[in-house]
């Protein structure tokens, strides 16, 4: 039995294929069992033969054991030159030829996320053949592309679904004005949800009480009045800074609070706070308005404080 050698060269490619076909007696001879089946089917002598190159031969044609040029364009197949990982294997245009040194935008995550929100495109460069490892130029790794993360209500599309802050009521850290019956305040967005208003909240009885800090120079003077939302003076805590053992407080004109240390209206300084409410309270006294003096006084009006021996009190005095 002899051999007939036929050779095919794949033009423009890199594979030279030689096929050796055995030549023997004419299979039509009666004493030779037929090994040729119908087109594409194994003969009666057995299954398709497999050569050393991994290709199976049949009378219907020749099958090569490598990837076909271009691949399938069906669902899930890698598409060339779109910069996307169509087949979901973490590589972008990996089997596609290109011009060495060329670049293209790319995204190495799911194609549906590409270019949306945090999933920005990266870039990949065409790599020239080298060290015999690459026969033709191929696209290199995609670098610099973004990736999705859970939404954090920050005014951005973190999860790359094309919707900014989906599931959020507000942008974390944002503030807006708010109010209660006791006054105005602000509301802050925390984790995508609006928090409570930080304005003064009504008490269990529905009344509004506000604390107003005071820091006043002078003696025989008045602190600013309570706010309109809580006009009634219902308490205080006073720290006179002078050395006189006497101290007096009393409601004054215009809803103000009068302060007097000693009996001389001269230099002085006091600190503390006043408590204001939207409903009247009991008169000021040691229980609701402590004074840091050994001889404290509480009057229903300024003229009930100890008599002034020198100096002139403020205009709120009566």
Lay out the secondary structure.
Elements: E1 2-9, E2 16-23, E3 57-58, E4 61-62, E5 103-106, E6 122-127, E7 138-139, E8 175-180, E9 183-190, E10 193-194, E11 209-217, E12 221-223, E13 232-240, E14 246-251, E15 257-261, E16 269-277, E17 295-298
3D architecture notes:
The protein is mainly beta and 318 residues long. Among the domains are: 1-30 and 76-113 and 122-143, no CATH class; 170-201, no CATH class; 209-304, no CATH class. It has no helices and 17 strands. It has a four-stranded mixed β-sheet with strand order 12-15-14-17, with no helix packed on it. Strands 5-6-7 form a three-stranded antiparallel β-sheet, with no helix packed on it. Strands 8-9-10 form a three-stranded antiparallel β-sheet, with no helix packed on it. It is rod-shaped, with a radius of gyration of 46 Å. Residues 1-75 have low confidence and may be disordered.
TL;DR?
The chain has 318 residues and is mainly beta. The chain is built from no helices and 17 strands. Strand 3 (57-58) and strand 4 (61-62) form a beta hairpin.
């Amino acid at each position: 039995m002899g051999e007939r050698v036929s050779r095919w060269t794949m033009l423009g490619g890199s594979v030279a294929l030689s096929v050796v076909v055995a030549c023997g007696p004419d299979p039509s001879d009666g004493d030779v069992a037929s090994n040729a089946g119908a087109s594409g089917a194994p003969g009666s002598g057995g299954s398709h033969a497999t050569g050393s190159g991994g290709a199976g031969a049949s009378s219907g044609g020749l099958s090569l054991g490598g990837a076909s040029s271009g691949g399938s364009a069906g669902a899930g197949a890698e598409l060339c030159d779109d910069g996307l990982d169509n087949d979901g294997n973490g590589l972008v245009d990996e089997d596609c030829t290109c011009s060495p040194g060329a670049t293209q935008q790319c995204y190495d995550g799911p194609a549906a996320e590409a270019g949306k929100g945090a999933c920005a495109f990266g870039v990949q460069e065409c790599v020239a053949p080298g060290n015999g490892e690459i026969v033709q130029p191929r696209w290199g790794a995609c670098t610099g592309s973004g990736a999705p993360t859970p939404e954090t209500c920050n005014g951005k599309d973190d999860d790359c679904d094309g919707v900014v802050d989906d599931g959020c009521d507000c942008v974390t850290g944002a503030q807006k004005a708010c109010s209660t019956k006791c006054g105005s305040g602000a509301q802050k967005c925390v984790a995508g949800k609006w928090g409570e208003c930080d304005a003064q909240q009504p008490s269990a009885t529905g009344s509004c009480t506000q604390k107003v800090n005071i820091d006043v120079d002078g003696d025989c003077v008045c602190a600013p009045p309570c706010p309109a939302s809580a006009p009634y003076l219902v308490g205080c805590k006073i720290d006179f800074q002078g050395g006189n053992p006497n101290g007096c407080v009393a409601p004054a004109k215009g809803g103000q609070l009068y302060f007097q240390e000693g009996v001389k209206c001269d230099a002085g300084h006091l600190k503390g706070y006043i408590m204001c409410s939207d409903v009247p309270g009991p008169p000021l006294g040691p229980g609701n308005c402590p004074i840091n003096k050994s001889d404290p006084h509480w009057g229903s009006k300024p003229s009930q404080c100890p008599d002034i021996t020198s100096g002139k009190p403020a205009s709120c005095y009566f």
